[in-house]
Amino acid sequence: MTEAKTVFFTGGAGFIGMHVIPMLLDRGYNVRLFDNMFRGDRDKVAELASTGRVELIDQDVRYGAAVHQAMKGCESVIHFAAVSINKSQADPYESIDINMVGNHNVFAAAADHGVRRLVFASSASVYGDPRKIPMHEDDPLHPLTPYCISKRAGEDLLDFYQRRSGLSWIALRFFNVYGEGQKTTAYYTSVINHFVARLKNGQPPVIDGKGEQSMDFIHVHDIARATVLALESERDNLPVNVGTGIDTSIATLARILIDAVGADVEPQFNPRDVLVARRAADTTRAREVLGFEPTITVEEGMTNLVKRSMQ
Ligand SMILES: NC(=O)c1ccc[n+]([C@@H]2O[C@H](COP(=O)([O-])OP(=O)(O)OC[C@H]3O[C@@H](n4cnc5c(N)ncnc54)[C@H](O)[C@@H]3O)[C@@H](O)[C@H]2O)c1
Questions:
Q1: What is the pLDDT of residues 74-105, one digit of tens each?
Q2: Which residues contact 50 (CB under 8 A, 6 or more apart)?
Q3: Does any ligand 1 atom lie closer than 6 A to the CB of residue 96?
Q4: Which of 9, 174, 189 to mutate to test the pocket of ligand 1 (most atoms within 8 A of CB)?
Q5: Cβ–ligand 1 contact at 155 (below 6 Å)
Q6: Would 6-175+220-242 and 177-217+245-310 be classified into the same CATH topology?
Q7: pLDDT tens digits for 283-299?
Q8: What is the mean pLDDT of residues 47-51?
Q9: In whole angstroms, what is the distance from residue 139 CA to residue 162 CA?
Q10: Which pLDDT does position 184 carry in this prediction?
Q11: Taking the domains of the chain in order of start, what are their residue ranges?
């Protein structure tokens, strides 16, 4: 593998990474995938490796020496390896090890090797329960779980290595990512799956309260585009929201999925008090810094997802 334009990509064998790698190959990069395959897809990785331009280092970000050694010769870094928000609540020790120590191992190695750019997968969860929407990058942060705390701390660590060693970075605050290849453990993915499963059985989706709680659903293809743009953008050293700016309520989601399945039902509302949390990204900075515009609407993305699952 030539070293000239190799991206060191941690956690690239996961859901989002599998959508980013083909775009990187299209743009002429080679990829050194660093993943312990805890959740990675070995078949897909083998398929990519058969191009001769993707190499898997089956290793763990918790081991700083392994990260440092494997990064040698890479010109840029994408850092995605992490364990999820749910798992971080169940096992904070593991979460801090992988998400906090792992972040530091990757950032310190990148600073040491003098890479051109590091792109970090942060998360909209750094905002906690937002006081207003849309959420802007300069809003106060209230990370609520070890996962969210490590994302915020990751951004602060990047700032440290920028000041200390001139590391160039962008932290992408991904909103509610959905699309092909996603595991079903995220809260909102389980809502999507639950609704679709009922609809396929001819049953209506059941919604707690009025279904006013909302999310900013963004398709994984757009997330992958934003990641590649961040690798190449002229501006750096700042967090950037990656969402659509549109808050889709659970009631609207149910309607979109009913139409996608083509079911002849109406959603059922379960009257009860529900905490109404709403989420939407301020997308101004993504436009200015990355030149990023989402291309897939929630209606289109969810409809395609449902159609694929019915094939
Ligand atoms: N999916 C979302 O909705 C979402 C939202 C916000 C932020 N993010 C962030 O984006 C990134 C990618 O998310 P995803 O949905 O593709 O996650 P994923 O769980 O599908 O992929 C994570 C990858 O990291 C690898 N990994 C886990 N622990 C590791 C370790 N100790 N060493 C090396 N590799 C390890 C896994 O094997 C997997 O391939 C993550 O950092 C995640 O926190 C995702």
A1: 999 999 999 988 888 889 999 999 999 999 99
A2: none
A3: no
A4: 174
A5: no
A6: no
A7: 999 999 999 999 999 99
A8: 97
A9: 22
A10: 67
A11: 6-175+220-242, 177-217+245-310
> Which atom from ligand 1 is nearest to the alpha carbon of 85?
43
What does the pLDDT look like over 147-158, one tens digit per residue? Answer: 999 999 999 999
Burial 137-157 (b: 16+ CB within 10 A, else e): bebebebebbbbbbbbbbbeb
Spatial separation of the C-alpha atoms in residues 209 and 212, rounded to whole Å: 8
pLDDT range class, residue 228, cuts 50, 70, 90: very high
Place of tokens 């699309």: 179
* Reported CATH class of domain 6-175+220-242: alpha beta
Helices 102-113 and 64-71 cross at an angle (nearest 10°) of 30
Measured distance CA(15)–CA(222) in Å, rounded = 13
Strand partners, 170: 119, 238
The secondary element (H helix, E strand) that includes residue 106 is helix 102-113
Task: For residue 197, give the H/E element and its range.
Answer: helix 187-200
What angle (nearest 5°) sits at the alpha carbon of residue 296, between those of residues 249 and 274? 10
Rounded CA-CA distance 92/94 in Å is 6
Identify the three-state secondary structure at position 41.
Answer: coil
Q: At 208, is the pLDDT very low, low, confident or very high (cuts 50, 70, 90)?
A: confident
Superfamily of domain 177-217+245-310: UDP-galactose 4-epimerase, domain 1 (3.90.25.10)
Residue 85 structure tokens: 């928000």
Handedness of CA 121, 127, 128, 129 (dihedral sign): negative
Q: Give the gyration radius of the chain's Cα atoms.
A: 20
Taking the centre of ligand 1 as the mean of its atom positions, its distance from the CA of residue 268, in whole angstroms, is 34
How many angstroms does the Cα of residue 106 sit away from the middle of ligand 1? 14
